[in-house]
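The aim of this short unit is practical: by the end, you should be able to scan a pair of folded records and say something sensible about each. We start with the first protein, listed as its amino acid sequence and then its structure tokens.
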Amino acid sequence: SRGLRKRAREFIETHEIPVNPYGAWAKSILETHPDLKVEVMNHLPSVGKYVQAHDIVTFLNRDVVKGRYGLLFTVFIASSKRWMKALKFRWVWNHLGQY
């Protein structure tokens, strides 16, 4: 409530609408380290024809890569799925039956 009161008083004094900071503080590691993005892009085709989000997790879980980019934790599968979408990789489920 203090933050809301502070913003309301600022609006009354300046008549300027405050900027919403939602989503501005979270940056993807692919945005902050463009060389990591290039390295992941080069690694994924070397995996083979069928690439999974888990391949990104195992690649970033290597000690060499962690040390190079200062990663303290492993990357989650959900994050690697978002990265695959950002890197323009697509995947489909294997179809079973007659199509």
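Turning to the second protein, read its sequence before its tokens, just as you did above.
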Amino acid sequence: MPRGIKAARSDIDTSQVDGNASPEIKHRMLGALQSMRRSTGKPSSSLENKIASRLQLTEASTLSKTEEPEKFEGRVVIQVIVDEELLNVDQNMHGGCTAMIIDMHMRSCSTMPIYVLGASTSGHGEFGVSQSLNIVYHSPALLGDKLRVVSTTLALGSRALSSRCEVWNVTRHRLVASAVHIKMVPSKPKASGSAKL
């Protein structure tokens, strides 16, 4: 089991999550989202945990790539409603909040399809650490707007992992942001006692 994913709780209901990922994979992903909400036994006041508490996992799948049908891609869809805590002074969703939804470590929208594909095809899902996150903002999201975050894998190598993410405004039928996230699997620390610079 990857670092950061605890054993899934038995009271988590996966029936509301569409897609062909196994119930176990859906269970672990829902468990990761829920663990942010109650990692200390009470709701955390960190912005990351507050945003994570708003995310609703709606799909987890492994699909044939359209361009290369013999290859597979992970696909995850998450929904969130823009509320007051996500707004900037102009009453639009803050770009930093959009970026956090895309990039929140293992619970992020762009990381989940990487985990789904790895766990579905090799039995080992990986999260990695961020190397690069490129975001293009296309249009604002307003208070009460329902967002649909669609993330798919681009490539999964032994060290390099990449995904793309599109944040769609369901309420206003427009693209809010798109991103490409490059991650890597860090090497294991060596046993030597001193670090070299």
